[in-house]
């Protein structure tokens, strides 16, 4: 097993190359696109809906409830980003249990790219809720001297988000590969189930942390709205 799946090269021409990270990321996107197309092409209402539609609707309701619990506001505007983030990560994680396929999230470049998406989304949602000046003011709270520390905090939590996802998925895949090599007749089923559990948990943790960061960027506006409603 390669320690860094970026080093698994399937095709290269000059500086252009297709490695395991890129190929498996395309595979995950293709799976999500095909699943979405199949499930949504014949939507119905009522009790007699198809299993795929029921599964997708249950997932949407679950994500909406989680967003409302964390942000205490309308969840629809956060659903596309948080839902897509969770779906991509969970499929990327669990696809690694298939023999000869590595999880794209076991690559540091993928984990960093996902963390950068969260890093960009936080100010976007914050500015849309609080306005440009209102959002920037939290960087100088409680005093202007906190500006560099708040900026460092934003960068460090983004780095921690990437390292947490990469470290957990990469180490989990490594442990499973080692155990399978030691006892290939006993561990396969148990380790595959363990890999699925790790993949789902890490996707959930990543999405929840992203939601918490976004909620912290919009919280002041929510408090003002509550004060107006109570007043």
Automatic annotation (TrEMBL):
The chain crosses the membrane at residues 20-40, 78-101, 107-127, 165-187, 193-215. It holds the Pfam family ATP-synt_A. Its main location: membrane. GO terms for biological process: proton motive force-driven plasma membrane ATP synthesis. It is a multi-pass membrane protein. InterPro entries: Alt_ATP_synth_F0_Asu, ATP_syn_F0_a_bact/chloroplast, ATP_synth_F0_asu, ATP_synth_F0_asu_AS, F0_ATP_A_sf. Keywords: ATP synthesis, Cell membrane, CF(0), Hydrogen ion transport, Ion transport, Membrane, Transmembrane, Transmembrane helix, Transport. One of its GO terms (cellular component) is proton-transporting ATP synthase complex. It comes from the Bacteria. This is ATP synthase subunit a. The lineage of its organism: Bacteria, Pseudomonadati, Balneolota, Balneolia, Balneolales.
């Amino acid at each position: 097993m390669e320690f860094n799946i970026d080093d698994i090269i399937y095709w290269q021409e000059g500086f252009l190359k297709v490695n395991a990270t890129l190929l498996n990321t395309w595979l995950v996107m293709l799976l999500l696109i095909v699943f979405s197309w199949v499930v949504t092409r014949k939507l119905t209402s009522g009790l007699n809906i198809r299993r795929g539609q029921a599964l997708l609707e249950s997932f949407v309701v679950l994500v909406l409830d989680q967003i409302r619990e964390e942000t205490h506001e309308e969840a629809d505007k956060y659903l596309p980003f948080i839902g897509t983030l969770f779906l991509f990560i969970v499929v990327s994680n669990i696809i690694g249990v298939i023999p000869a396929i590595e999880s794209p999230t076991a690559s540091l470049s993928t984990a960093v790219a996902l963390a950068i998406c969260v890093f960009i989304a936080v100010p976007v949602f914050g500015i849309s809720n609080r306005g440009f000046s209102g959002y920037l003011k939290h960087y100088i709270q409680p005093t202007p001297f906190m500006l560099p520390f708040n900026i460092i905090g934003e960068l460090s939590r983004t780095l921690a988000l990437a390292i947490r996802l990469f470290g957990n998925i990469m180490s989990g895949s490594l442990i499973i590969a080692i155990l399978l090599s030691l006892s290939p007749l006993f561990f396969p089923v148990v380790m595959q189930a363990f890999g699925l559990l790790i993949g789902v948990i890490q996707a959930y943790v990543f999405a929840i942390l992203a939601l918490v960061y976004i909620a912290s960027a919009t919280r002041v506006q929510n408090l003002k709205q509550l004060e107006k409603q109570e007043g």
